[in-house]
Amino acid sequence: MSILPPGSTLGILGGGQLGRYMAMSAQSKGYRVAVLDPQEDAPAHMVANLKLVGPYDDPESLRQLADCCDAITFEFENVPASSLEPFAAKGLAIRPGPKALASCQDRILEKTLINHCGIETAPWKPIHQAQDLAKALAELGGEGILKTSRSGYDGKGQARVKTLDDAQAAFAKFGSVACVLEGLVPFALECSVLAARDTDGHCETYPVCENAHQDHILDVTICPAAVSESSARAMRSRTALLAQELDYVGHLAVEFFVLPGGEVLVNEIAPRPHNSGHLTIDTALHSQFEQHVRCVLGWPVLPYESIQTAAAMANLLGDLWDHGEPHWERLGEFPDVRLHLYGKAKARPGRKMGHLTAWAESPLAAERLVRDARAALGSAA
Ligand code: AMP
To which H or E segment does residue 212 belong? Predict the structure, then answer.
């Protein structure tokens, strides 16, 4: 195992909250951080040692970043594969590697890889042209969810389709780009497994998190999830297997559907720290960001477990600012709840501005606490 020495520079493509926490973790170990993001006031730019403002495919910005960093990572999977070329040309460590990025940014490749490992997903069909829709829809029972193969997130690039007309209209609306049509999964729960894998191939997984969404955006995460031992074991072992299959180095999250009988299906792989892992900042000995930068910089992954019996995280979206500044003073009533804000100047509906983490003696109590604290922010005492 070869460690990049402190004092080296970590480059990060993407300057959102994930990039910001990665930067702070790396800096706490004496590394320098250079961040490329198109937005001047991106959250990670506020903490970076070197801030580069430009598009992710701008050759000059990429060259500048490649010139000043010793390893490169990214905070989102839609980085164009060509953006990694300047780093590969200089022989820099790209972690996670191009195979993981390519596989996770294209749903067709991703599902093919997952199924190839013998791991089940929702039933799905690739859609390359409008003519593929009729047969696929019939094979999936006449309804499903059409998802663009690339560039979708938080429910964008997705449409529930109940008829061939719906499917054709959605396909046209997406610009007739490659898509997948997925059968509807009657899931009981949605879960995620956080994992980190180092350059020696050691992989550590975190206890399973349970995720509740609102309007396709993660709303609340609870840990540990209310699943059986065997479902939890199945999710954690599938995550480790996928990380191995992707030659993965860094932190990832695998999202699962849990069926009413306890069977698990992989929904998707996020090749980066994940919103459902934010609670690890406060409730794990080593957060997902600490684990990510350790692995990326060549350090061994550490045991990954919670130091609290149970925890919950609630996102703070821009909607909370609809009636003015939230009542931050109300958090004084909640000593077991911690506030995180990402430094974003403008609140917009649906925009992730920050989150709350709560810990308690049971997952239910932690969930109640974090929801109560968030509700309190919306009204004066
Ligand atoms: P995704 O972007 O693929 O994670 O989808 C966003 C959300 O849509 C998921 O978290 C689920 O709540 C829902 N969803 C996605 N795919 C399916 C499916 N095949 N069946 C039922 N619900 C789904």
Answer: strand 209-214
